[in-house]
Amino acid sequence: MGEVFLPGNHRYFGKQFMMWRQEAEMSREEVAEAVGYSAEMVRSVEQGRRACPPRMAEIADELFGARGKLKDGLSYLTREKYPARSRDFMQREAEAVAHSSYESTLIPGLLQTEAYARALLGGTWPPADDEVVERRLEVRMARQERLHRKPMLSFNFIIYEAALRCPMGGPEAHKGQLLHLIDAAKLPNVILQVLPFENAVSSALGGAMVLLEMPEYKRVAYVMGQSMSELADDPAEVNRLEQRFRRLSAQALSPNDTVRSIERMVETL
């Protein structure tokens, strides 16, 4: 994959940052030490590949003697809601009329509690800035409004048991997340199934996927990995993933048995 560049106003800001730095006769390494970020981060900001954190801009403005000119430039930057690799998917998800997903290691974003999501987003490596975590958390919580939209949309979630056993965020957050799943399973437009360990098939270990039904019956699929994700609209590929999803659904517990299984997990906490 090639380098990912942010919108033009970020690149313009980065150019201004570099010009102010050069006029102050400071190296990237010197700036990095002063602002508490790496020299590579400074380079990425100057090249428009990374958004400039407000704290970096504020400290650099004083370092460079920019008298507020650099710091004020932050207000003109476009803040992207989503990471570049998931932006196309989020746009398709917003237009979809039906959503089916399988998760092997995590609770689906649409079903995460705030405590679970905060622990997940705040535990990435390399670490994300607090501001980035809060922004992504806000967006993730806002996405969940789709579950309650009128007219109702259709949702079908399959979650591998491993995701339910992981106490993300600690014992209280874990218990709250399981109770939240029970509540979500009661929504009339939501089908929730758990794939237990004893029913696992090889495809259960192949990673997460989302299947979206778009208006006019077009279908797309989104497959997620550690650092790469793929949005597919080729009918043959989407059909292959739909068959895999149906296989997982057949091996998973029924919706009623799923709720009872999660209730038993809660009782043991």
UniProtKB/TrEMBL annotation:
| GO MF annotation terms | DNA binding
Record-given protein name: XRE family transcriptional regulator
Question: What organism does this protein naturally occur in?
Answer: Streptosporangium nondiastaticum
The HTH cro/C1-type domain is annotated at 16-71
* Top-rank taxon, per record: Bacteria
Mind telling me which SMART domains this protein's record contains? Answer: HTH_XRE
Q: Output the InterPro entries linked to this UniProt entry.
A: Cro/C1-type_HTH, DUF5753, Lambda_DNA-bd_dom_sf
